[in-house]
Design brief:
Elements: H1 6-12, H2 18-23, H3 34-39, H4 43-49, H5 53-68, E1 80-83, E2 96-99, E3 104-108, H6 115-124, E4 135-138, H7 145-155, E5 156-160, H8 171-181, H9 187-201, H10 217-230, E6 236-240, H11 249-258, E7 262-266, H12 270-275, E8 278-283, E9 286-292, H13 295-319
Parallel strand pairs: 3-7, 3-8, 5-6, 6-7
Antiparallel strand pairs: 1-2, 1-4, 8-9
Helix pairs in contact: 8-9, 9-10, 10-11
InterPro entries: AAA+_ATPase (IPR003593), ABC_transporter-like_ATP-bd (IPR003439), ABC_transporter-like_CS (IPR017871), P-loop_NTPase (IPR027417)
Family: Belongs to the ABC transporter superfamily.
Protein name: ABC transporter related protein
């Protein structure tokens, strides 16, 4: 820490600024060193804090050291296993599924078939204590009650088709706070990257100055997908029917899987279903079949993607008030 300016320190430890706010001290300017800052504090400021210059300098050094060693990587998941429970009639569910980072699994079936319940079981790390009696194992073991409560918020990120912000912040302020909480080395660069990723997904562009409460549903979901992919430490992502979210859903899934997460997608969209390596077919509240995506289905995906591009172009023409142009083969 000796000889370094606060500007250098902030680039590596932006959360270090919090020390001065908590102590009630004036924020230091970037160009000076901690030694110069504490030496220049007035006797009045020291009296209000109730500490000497040496004590403040020592506390700041310990605070910065603690930040350097703070683990914000989130829980590590090498494998996620789901063991079958029962269907709505109490019949055994023949399921023994193990997933690893980078896996994408689609959940398909009629409305009410049990897809959302399956996602809830994963989120809760079920241990035969939910209506389905399923068991969820992390790294080959069940989590006890204490671990489940402490892990659930950090282990799983959820993305649904209904997502709106209520915070009175601009997009940039929200992302800055999240990036600083993750101890990002270059917060402005991360914020710019997340905004760019969100705009690559959303039909209507947003900026760092856009108020969160002014975002449309599609913009909100695009922002959260970009945030989860770039900043969120949760190793498991649950996605519930984002096909109607007004975003490029194929890019969204590609972005999430590229971040090395386990992704579970409940969907009615054939494009999303075939992008997955496997799909779970639900009926009567249970998994009725596990199907590997075949080479023939991969070929069908190419044709479906081409059709989807034409439909997307037609939708955009309608939005912009243009005549619909649907080229013939």
């Amino acid at each position: 820490m000796s000889g370094r300016t606060f500007g250098d320190i902030w680039r590596e430890l932006p959360a270090g600024r919090d020390f001065f706010g908590v102590q009630g001290l004036p924020p230091p300017v970037d160009a000076i060193t901690p030694e110069a800052y504490f030496a220049a504090l007035t006797e009045t400021a020291l009296a209000e804090v109730g500490l000497s210059r040496e004590e403040l300098a020592e506390r700041f050094a310990r605070f910065a050291e603690a930040l350097e060693h703070l683990d914000v990587s989130g829980p590590r998941v090498d494998s996620l296993a789901i063991r079958g429970g029962t269907d709505k009639r109490g019949r055994p569910e023949a399921l023994d599924l193990t997933l690893t980072p980078g896996d994408v699994v689609a959940l398909v079936g009629p409305t009410g078939a049990g897809k959302s319940r399956f996602l809830a079981d994963v989120e809760w790390l079920a241990d035969a204590d939910t209506p389905t009696r399923r068991r969820v194992l992390l790294n080959g073991a069940t989590a006890d009650a204490t671990a489940r409560l402490s892990l659930s918020g950090r282990l799983v990120a959820q993305l649904s088709q209904n997502m709106h912000f209520v915070m009175d912040l601009a997009v940039g302020e929200f992302l800055t706070a999240h990036a600083e909480s993750r101890l990002a080395a270059d917060v402005p660069a991360v914020v710019a990257e997340v905004v760019a990723l969100a705009n690559d997904l959303a039909g209507e562009p947003l900026s760092a100055e856009t108020p969160l409460t002014a975002l449309s549903g599609g913009q909100s979901r695009a922002l959260m997908i970009a945030d989860v992919a770039r900043l969120c430490a949760s190793p498991i992502v649950l996605v519930d029917e984002i096909e109607n979210a007004g975003i490029d859903r194929c890019k969204a899934i590609s972005l999430l899987t590229g971040s090395g997460k386990i992704v579970l997608v409940a969907t009615h969209d054939p494009l999303l279903a075939l992008l997955a390596t496997r799909r779970l077919v639900f009926a009567a509240g249970a998994v009725a079949a596990v199907i590997e995506t075949s080479p023939a289905e991969r070929e069908a995906l190419t044709a479906l993607a081409a059709m989807d591009e034409k439909l997307a172009a037609a939708r955009e023409d309608l939005r912009r008030g243009r005549p619909v142009r649907f080229p013939k083969e």
